Amino acid sequence: MSRETGHSLAAQVDRLGRAQVARRERPVLREARITLSHGSGGKASRNLIDGLIAPALGMEDALTQVDSVILPVTTGRIAFTTDTYVVSPLFFPGGDIGSLAVHGTINDLAMTGARPLALSLGFILEEGLEVEVLRRVLASIAAASAAAGVRIQTGDTKVVPRGKADALFINTSGVGLVAEHLTLSPAGAVPGDRVLLSGSVGEHGIAVMLAREALEIEADIRSDSAALHGLAAAVLEAAPGTRCLKDPTRGGVATSLNEIARAAGTGIAIEEERIRVLPEVRGACEILGLDPLHIANEGKLLAIVPPEQAAAALAAMRAHPLGRDAAIIGEVLDQPGDMVVLRTEAGGSRVLDMLVGDPLPRIC
Amino acid sequence: MSRETGHSLAAQVDRLGRAQVARRERPVLREARITLSHGSGGKASRNLIDGLIAPALGMEDALTQVDSVILPVTTGRIAFTTDTYVVSPLFFPGGDIGSLAVHGTINDLAMTGARPLALSLGFILEEGLEVEVLRRVLASIAAASAAAGVRIQTGDTKVVPRGKADALFINTSGVGLVAEHLTLSPAGAVPGDRVLLSGSVGEHGIAVMLAREALEIEADIRSDSAALHGLAAAVLEAAPGTRCLKDPTRGGVATSLNEIARAAGTGIAIEEERIRVLPEVRGACEILGLDPLHIANEGKLLAIVPPEQAAAALAAMRAHPLGRDAAIIGEVLDQPGDMVVLRTEAGGSRVLDMLVGDPLPRIC
């Protein structure tokens, strides 16, 4: 079933078809009003998207599971993605809304295996915003864009009256070029595949939360916000059979793994002891009653890789500055039910669910 | 100098270079705070974009004058654009924020001569928004997208707390395929070229304003919001030498013509009597003290066409449902100073400036 057999594309299409049929009934949006949970990236978000937005637009809900779309263009194929950033506060340790908007959209492209070509930049600015704030954000955008080697190529700016926005919001969309042979998809995971994670979890969400709230917690936690296209390319070169890549942003690693399990119609088991959590992050999570696996990351990569290429993928990650702490954290199980199980250090196990509700709104 | 001589591309590049050199010094953003005028699409917007945003990003300001960017993709070329919609109210005669977001971004692509391939959809939703409102907007997006034959292919949804947005905002970005030979550019206008306009002006801005304000004006004015890619393609087929296309949105026909004159380093003269204004729009403008040439349109096309192809372009426009009232409204002058002159019906003439300030905020 691996890509190397020469039957990879047909096999993947077949798996996609079966995942489609096996998928549970379409979720229903029951609420009459939008709540903060609808923007969480977790279950309520899925209800909103698959229960309302996708059907209203005639989109397959499989389409809403991936952040970028691949378009046939004459002989090439382009990836095209969009993301809006409403993070609060605008500035936080390790980043700001500007660098985040560059990294996040590059990462959405990178998860399709695309080489990012260009970004767009759409601002909504609140009347009364200090120009100095905008200037700082722009400088950060420029720096992040230059460091990543991906330029802002088109843009748009709107201003709304005071009180009709919160300082500034950013949309970045992006296009990228996809190599001819690549067909990464969460539905492509098959039993036996290994789950790789490029580093420690939870820094971004906790860094933003600590910057926002007047909490008693004193901890030096910086966002991990970073552009992942270089790391993704290294993994794909080392492990060309890679099934899918995923950046565990809103909803964290737990939500991303649940999305993969659901798309593939398989189970996933991960080992708690293999997942690195910085002590400061673990401490903050304990005080706040949060699971680090539900916290957003902005510079981490999950990869689902066939077992025979897992060692090569791991070595490629560890050789990259953004993947030094990479680990094989688990594997895809031959088990229906789309369940993600966490095997604890104590020897027990528990079901790892998607994020429910939104303990950390506006972290991106 | 026309495209038919076989030297078109070289000539255009040359003209672009000269326009670059001839351009006035970069505008300076003097304000310490963002005002509503910075979102007007007029002079203050240019000061913000060319005085702050473009230099902060290392963009040539020529790049900020066009709404889409053309990217080389293996053998093909794609156009890529973004636009954010914050129109208030959300619903108005002739359209709503959803149809507008589809039409506006398709039109940005169409102005490059591209065939639109795909749109993205990024929502910012305010906590407490009635789902029914979102449902209506989505239905409108779906209808506009289906009618235009351009699908929403990727999206993103964020929710912000009550009071941090105004019901909902939309970003749509788009990609399109550009025919190999096309190099439309406002800098491509040369003296003698004719200026074509596809129909009457001012309906969109006035329709939105009347829907928003509790004014004493009773008038049945509907937005002209429409997707222009079909009309644009018809013009380009009939007049392959077309220099540039432009949809006169924020800032109106006057601002668009000034942008073309500035990019090309030429003057433009237009005849007032050739410009169609519906009596209801004229009446509303007189009461409000506004010039219809400064009012936003969302379904009109300006085309700069070499004189020998102007009749064919006009016929093609008139044969299209969206161009029935098309007219040749003026011509490009061999006159430095980048000035747009309006020759009045009374036989006089006056300088037609870009929009200054923003009498109609949030019309798109």
Plain-language structure description:
The structure is a homodimer of 364-residue chains. The longest helix of chain A has 18 residues. Chain A has 2 domains: 143 residues, 60s Ribosomal Protein L30, Chain: A (2-Layer Sandwich), CATH 3.30.1330.10; 166 residues, Phosphoribosyl-aminoimidazole Synthetase, Chain A, domain 2 (Alpha-Beta Complex), CATH 3.90.650.10. In chain A, helix 3 runs parallel beside helix 4 and helix 6 crosses helix 9. In chain A, the strands form 3 sheets. In chain A, strands 9-11-8-12-10-13-14 form a 7-stranded mixed sheet. Chain A has a 5-stranded mixed sheet with strand order 1-2-7-5-6, covered by helices on one side. Chain A has a two-stranded antiparallel ribbon with strand order 3-4. The first copy, chain A, is of the alpha+beta class. In chain A, 60% of the residues are buried. Chain A is built from 9 helices and 14 strands.
Would you report the number of β strands of chain A? 14
CATH topology of the largest domain in chain A: Phosphoribosyl-aminoimidazole Synthetase, Chain A, domain 2
How many helices of chain A in DSSP terms? 9
In terms of quaternary structure, what is this? homodimer
Integer average pLDDT of chain A:
83
- In percent, how much strand structure appears in the residues of chain A? 15-25%
Task: Let me know the largest β-sheet of chain A.
Answer: 7 strands, mixed
N→C terminal distance of chain A: 37 Å
Outline of chain A: globular
